[in-house]
Amino acid sequence: FIDCNFNSCNLSMVKLSGTSFINIKFNNCKMLGMPFNNCNQFGLLFSFQSYPSDQLQVVS
Length: 60
Fold this sequence. Notes:
Oligomer: single chain
Number of strands: 3
Structural class: mainly beta
Number of helices: 0
Distance between the termini: 22 Å
């Protein structure tokens, strides 16, 4: 995905094996269990808006 906006999407438990995210915005999306560690890390760039920061958990 390049230069995309995801708006009010339910992306919970998606499979991201080898997926590329370049300049992506997630706006008010449900994102439980998204394994970003399985993404293609080359050019990985995304942002989150309207997401409660107290619910954001990043696991490396």
